[in-house]
Amino acid sequence: MEEVMLEKSDELVMKLLHFFITEQGYSPIVLHGAKNEIWLENLENSYQVVRIVSNYIHNDEQMSFDLYRTEQILKRVKKKTCSFHMEALSLFVNLGDSVHMNDYTHVGSISCANVKKISDLKKYPFIIDEFPTITKKTSFKEKGVELFMKITKDISLKNEEESKKANQVFEPKKPVVTYILIAINTIMFLAMYFFGNGSENVYTLLHFGANYGPLVRAGEYYRLLTSAFLHIGILHFLMNNYALYVIGTQLESFLGKAKYICVYLFSAIAGNLLSIVFSDYVSAGASGAIFGLFGSLLYFGYHYRIYLGTVLKSQIIPLILVNLIMSFVIPGIDAAAHIGGLVGGALITMALGVPFKSTQFEKTNGWILTLIFILFLWFMAFHGLVL
User: Fold this and answer.
1) 27-28 and 88-92 strand pairing
2) How far is the C-alpha of 297 from the C-alpha of 243, rounded, in Å?
3) Shared domain check, 347 and 265
4) With the C-alpha atoms ordered 141, 144, 146, 147, is the resulting torsion angle positive or negative?
5) ∠ CA 353-356-359, rounded to 5°
6) Of 251, 268, 304, 371, which residue is the least packed, with the fewest Cβ within 10 Å?
7) What range does the domain containing 72 cover?
């Protein structure tokens, strides 16, 4: 049988695709109107975007226009993914000899390389420094159609693996923990009426475990947690449980039950600690814990912003901002508890890790920051002056 040969440029593109997708975890970006070029993204890498260009560019004018257009597309990608900064690597496999490549190696946030063959990658230290195995991992013994079949199969398997991970994270799951938390809130709310003088009575609130600085400092530390299951009045009860239902069902599905309950309880404690730093009033409610869920969702959404970028920008961030503003504007709301919960929720999620995204280094830093944060709150609450 006659062997079918691939064009050298096509073979080069396939080898580069194989490396960036299977070895570096990049995923294709679908762009309308982008011909003869492939865009790949990995928001966790130093080069968040890798662009492989097979379009023929024969002079400096075309090259300048290409980079200008790339910058405009990068702005759109950055906006969609809620990224503050984005570095791109453009690999040109069909560049004309009239292009003065030295003038275009680094243009703004775009780094460029002229790659006619794999060995050309060694000419660019910024590529080898970032991807030290690129020349080794793009060396194949297969040729022609055999090479095409191998690369296609490997990329398909990698995409299937990533798809399974995404499905595992985003597949709806029964929010058992959220339902249990709402049930506990409901039981405690009713108990204050059956066995006390109502949810708005100060003595009943204190008897059932409301947060109160002098008592917590006297050794009743349990109040930092029990107060998160008490509510003052029917409106407070209904609003917090509705918020818990809306946010909690989603976050429990994303993080898993064990991490979710850790985030909730830690955020409640962090919020209540900051609360007694700023006041010695009797306080209660799940608001600190719910703001912790906000912080956790924000951190999770940032890691999965390729999926949640639009939701993060149009819904999650505005919702957090509106609720924070309301905390300061409306009298009687414990803004300190909200802020403590928000920060605590983000930090403990960093420590616990986001499924399939967090590195061990990132989680270690999360535990260090979480420990520093909680120790600072503890010191301020028990040894600092009430502000």
Assistant:
1) unpaired
2) 13
3) yes
4) positive
5) 55
6) 371
7) 8-169
State the CATH number of the domain containing residue 272. Answer: 1.20.1540.10
Long-range contacts from 96-104, C-beta under 8 angstroms, 24+ separation: 96/56, 96/57, 96/58, 96/59, 98/58, 98/59, 98/60, 99/57, 99/58, 99/59, 99/60, 99/62, 99/63, 100/60, 103/60, 104/63, 104/67
Helix, coil or strand: residue 92: strand
Instruction: Look at residue 1 in the predicted model and tell me its pLDDT.
Output: 40
**191 and 100 together in one domain:** no
Reading phi first (left if > 0) and then psi (alpha if -120 to 50, else beta), residue 172 is in beta
Q: Is 161 helix (H, G, I), strand (E, B) or coil?
A: helix
**C-alpha span between 254 and 292 (Å, rounded):** 15
* Spatial CB neighbours of 296, under 8 Å, sequence gap ≥ 6: 251, 255, 263, 267, 345, 346, 348, 349
Q: What percent of the chain has pLDDT over 70?
A: 97
110-152 confidence digits (pLDDT tens)? 999 999 999 999 999 999 999 999 999 998 888 878 888 888 8
Token pair in block for residue 344: 């605590």
Neighbours of 138 (CB within 10 A): 19
In three-state secondary structure terms, 372 is helix
**Helix or strand (DSSP H, E) at 27:** strand 27-28
Q: Are residues 127 and 187 in the same domain?
A: no
**Residue 101 contacts residue 112 (beta carbons within 8 Å):** yes
Q: Is 307 a member of any domain?
A: yes
303 CB burial (10 A radius; 0-12, 13-18, 19+): buried
Catalytic residue ranges: 287, 338
This prediction has a pTM of 0.82
What pLDDT is stored for residue 386 in this prediction?
Answer: 52
pLDDT (tens digit per residue) in 58-113: 899 999 999 999 999 998 888 887 788 899 999 999 998 899 988 899 999 999 99
CB atoms within 10 A of CB 370: 21
* Residue/partner pairs of 303-307 with CB below 8 Å, 24 or more apart: 303/354, 303/357, 303/358, 304/169, 304/354, 304/357, 305/43, 305/81, 305/82, 305/83, 306/27, 306/41, 306/43, 306/81, 307/166, 307/170
Same domain, 216 and 153: no
CA 335, 208, 337 angle in degrees (round to 5)? 10
Select from 304, 27, 307 the least CA-distant residue to 155.
Answer: 27
